[in-house]
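Continuing the series of single-chain predictions for the mutant panel. This is the parent chain; the variants come on the following pages.
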Amino acid sequence: MTWYVWAMKTMRVSEFKAKCIGALKGVSRGGEPLLVTLRGAPLAEVRRPEAARAGVRLGAQRGAIIEDTGIAVPPFAEDWAEGDGRGDVS
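Parent structure:
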């Protein structure tokens, strides 16, 4: 993740603690991410969820996965069938 501190609104963690709900609502309304810092170092980045930005709907990929009901046979199946099934090396 790349941080663009100069282009992003920053807030000290103590201030974020005091104004948490207002800060979250501001990010939600405006869409501009917020960088929370602790002693000048980045601590957390608050941004809108991807679904809210992209307009993705729950269940949009329904039916996209094709299920293969065939049984996969491992390449060592013949060797296993010839032995006693305990994997003894002789």
